[in-house]
Design a protein that fits this description.
Shape: elongated
Structural class: mainly alpha
Subcellular location: Cell membrane
Radius of gyration: 18 Å
Number of strands: 0
Oligomer: single chain
Main location: membrane
Membrane topology: Multi-pass membrane protein
Order of helices and strands: HHHHHH
Family: Belongs to the UPF0719 family.
Keywords: Cell membrane, Membrane, Transmembrane, Transmembrane helix
Amino acid sequence: MGSVFQSFQEGFPTFLLWTGAAGLMLILAVSVYVLLTPWKELALVKGGNGTAGLALAGAIVGLAIPLASCLASSVSLLDLMLWGIVSLILQLLAYRLTDLMLRDLPKRIQDDEAGAAIVLIGTKLASAMLLAAGLWDPALQRF
């Protein structure tokens, strides 16, 4: 039983550091996402727009998926930071392309049309899963 507590005592600070770094990257990426979108999710959500809440929740989960993949497969904190930043930038670019392709999306989100948010969530989660899978490196036997 002593070895379990010793392992916890040695590993817990690393867990906090790595998870904290990933959490900070997620907060920064969500902030950038909110600034990039043509509609203002937080104001819409505060005003009772459920569709904006769905779209923002989908974006947060979509950003977290590749970041979680990085967290699970990184071999060092620097590795986590590097691949985490790369994955978040790529995911933000994918989101921006999605937003641009669905031209009437900002108006539909503002008009509280759930169908628009569902399509948006689907495309964001799909791109997140593809990106997360692409982070796997068989040469390093990551994962």
